[in-house]
Amino acid sequence: MRVAIAGAGAVGRSIASELLENGHEVLLVDKAPSAISVERVPMAEWLLADACEITSLDEAALQRCNVVIAATGDDKVNLVVSLLAKTEYGVPRVVARVNNPKNEWLFNEAWGVDVAVSTPRLMSALVEEAVSVGDLVRLLRFSQGDANLVELTLPPEAALAGTRVGDVDWPEDTSLVTIIRGNRVLTPNKEDVLEAGDELLFVAAPAREEQLEDLLSVRREDA
Question: Residue 180: enclosing H or E segment and its boundaries?
Answer without folding.
Answer: strand 174-181
